[in-house]
Specification:
This protein is α+β, with helices and mostly antiparallel strands. Helix content is 40%, strand content 13%. Strands 2-1-3-4 form a 4-stranded mixed sheet, with helices on both faces. Mean pLDDT is 82; it is low at 119-129.
């Protein structure tokens, strides 16, 4: 089973670039094998992507924007669907993959790391004296 992420390497939209990077980085961080398909380099690949997105998932106007995600020929969804599955910890189901124990652990570690980064951090300053007026200059040795 091949996960394919359809991207546009020469998109002028910063939002599209960030969404593509978000999907790719997540897959790489979780060691999920995938193929990145650049639709700006091949009209045939772009048309294949457009044709294989179900009609009920097509935008009301215009063409579907990257990233679009497929598992083999099965359409998984766009960035919004991916993001929702990431938030609800159902990415493997979204991608049509069977989660493994190690992948569950990796997802948990990635989520915990994100929580740690977003948590407030209390910084202690060991370089100040006990009364916070002067730099710490006491000799700290095991014999004291």
């Amino acid at each position: 089973m091949v996960i394919r992420v359809f991207v546009a390497s020469s998109s002028g939209s910063v939002a599209i670039k960030k969404r593509q990077q978000d999907v790719v980085r997540f897959l790489e961080a979780n060691r999920i094998e995938f193929e990145e398909v650049d639709i700006t380099m091949s009209e045939e690949k772009r048309q294949w992507m457009y044709k294989n997105i179900p009609e009920d998932r097509q935008p009301a106007q215009g063409n579907p924007l990257p990233p679009q995600i497929f598992s083999d020929d099965r359409y998984c969804g766009d960035y919004d669907g991916f993001f929702e599955s990431k938030e609800s910890n159902t990415v493997f189901s979204f991608l049509g993959l069977k989660p493994t124990l190690t992948s569950k652990l990796r997802l948990c570690q990635v989520d915990e790391a994100a929580e740690l980064v977003q948590s407030p951090v209390l910084l202690l300053a060991p370089w100040t004296s006990r009364d916070n007026r002067e730099p710490w200059n006491e000799d700290i040795s095991p014999t004291q």
